[in-house]
Here is the input.
Amino acid sequence: MKNKQQGFTLIELMIVVAIVAILSSFAVPAYQNYTKKATLAEFPKAASAIKLAVEVCAHESSADSDSFKTNCISNNNGVPAQFTLNKMQIVAAAGSSSGAVDIRVKATSDKGPIKTGETYVMTASYQAEGITWDSKCYKDAGMSQANTEYCP
Here is the structure.
């Protein structure tokens, strides 16, 4: 009786390796985008305590738009002071526009795909109906380069 050899030929194995290489060339960049988006999703969660405190401050102090900007910032009226949490610096500061408070979450050191200085800003605008929130991401601490690609 003659034994027949079983297995894959070298050509078949090379084809499989080539297919895997082509598929991974698409998968790796997509995975990197996913991890950056997932890491940036931590920024709004980190700011949730200050966000709630700003809303309570606006409600309890019955502030108008001008006093809201100065009364409902860090270290005032129950709004927590600036703090650092898991390589993120979080602070509520007077916003650039009238009647606005900015909550800034800034990476204090590299955090996975997030680089030092990348900043997430939640802007609270005081209006008669209540507070409205807007958010933006920046690639630098000076907030001059918008990052719309990964912003949650």
Strands lie at 83-85, 88-94, 100-107, 119-127, 130-138. The mean pLDDT is 82. Residues 10-40 form the longest helix (31 residues).
